[in-house]
Amino acid sequence: MQISWKQEIKSVQQITNEEILKLILKNRKIKNINEFLNPSFIDKIHIGNFGDGFKNEVKTTIQLLKKIRKNNETVVVYTDYDADGITGGAILWETLHLLGFKAIPYVPHRKNEGYGFSVKGIDNVKNEFNPALIISVDHGITAKEKVTYAKKLGIPIIITDHHLKPEQIPDDAKAIFHITALSGSGVAYFFSKMIFEEFKFSQPGNIQAQLSENFESYYLALASIGTIADLVPLVGPSRSIVYHGLKEFEHTKRVGLQCILENAGITGKPITTYEIGYIIAPRINAVGRLEHAINALRLLCTKDKAKASGLASHLGLKNRERQDLVEKSVKQALLRLEASEGKPNKIPKLIILYDPDWNEGIIGLIASKMSEKYYRPVIILTKSDGILKGSARSVGEFHITNFLRELKKYLIDIGGHQGAAGFTIEEKKLTEFNTAALGLINKHLEDKDLERKIEADIKIPLSKITLALAKTIEKLQPFGIGNPQPKFYCEGKIIDAKLMGKNNQHLKIYIKDDASFPLEILSFNNGKEFINLSKGKKIEVVISLSVNRWNSKEQLQGILINSICINK
Length: 568
Known about the structure:
By secondary structure, the protein is of the alpha/beta class.
């Protein structure tokens, strides 16, 4: 484990909490500190603020939609089945619906149709709805051949996406709104807002008011779910979406969100990026992983409380089923890796595992768990309808999608971003692919790249860690990718340590230095380290700061990220 820090504050140094906050932002290369701490409300941001402004694309889109509405033709919102796609699809479908369009949501079945556009999916849409237009949400930028296929059937396609561009984009698309700074739901939000601004005066005043309120509240909440779930950096417009969107959860009027919060047992609690990323988004994702994702979209759009309650319960059940399935499959993957590779120190730089019986809806989660455990890129494959589907996860700065594109001659298709990718491959090419991938990885990664690294924002004396500092640091919320919770490196001596939790799986450690009061530090799922902790032992810790609020009281707590005990 390598531990470093960007800045050091000495015990004799006079510095305020606000100055520490600004120091963190400066080291993170945040230029406009006031804008970062007080993100612009979303009504000041428009689709034209991105890229080249999309002037031609906007003009083409509006002209086509005017023609479609005049002729009472159908628009299909063809959305991805993950939380980002489902939330973005809900925003776009409801916007079109309230503006008087004959709009139909379409979510492909993960197993039967696969990710994004497929010939089978386009045929289904053509035969069932015969649309005058398909609009993608959270996919499409890599679907050159499928877009051409739809064009031959007489169906124009507008693409809204945020994924990494391939070498050849779908030039047969009617228009492409591609914005990598946003999530798929973020692109859908601004795309829908653009349509609303153009068509709002054609609707009654109550519809105008309803949609205006939606874009200031509910749609922001949906876009914040997609942004957090898809691990989009929380800077710029994406930070604005999440900063303002999270506030909607506290007083939402939408029964879908209300029932998700009730089912998860978090009604009335402050909703942060943690609750979205680890409680809410997994429920939306679960149905798409194990069955058809349309029920998640229905939950987000329904106005019927009883229906919403039933759907939220169903999502909760599917999420528990997903958790059990992931736990079982990860155990299988670990056994398989140990059987084939032996001891962990002999594990290759790139882990590739295949099992035809793994559920394709969870292979990305298996890859994530394995990558976290061994800190190296992981590819997990399974079999589906005669071909192999793969999901990859990366570590550090290694760009897994670019890596896989170097191996594209073995693949049917590939898509993704720096940290994650998905692809398909013929089974007969798997052995050849494995050999090539394991050879290529040595050109990209050295052993030192696979050492876990922790970079603290500041090395700071324990005497300067205070409740007031922790409350000042809260101004940086929401935390997430691109804006992680600040980490502090501190040195002190252990004055006490206790096991806690139902099964003694957690730790509570108290440390201090010569000038400080004891600091309480929580270490989750780390009870096994209790044996190494003894009073008086010197300890170096990397922690984040938390304010424990309970019964109108506030208490400073440190959350342990890593520690080193020294026998002194």
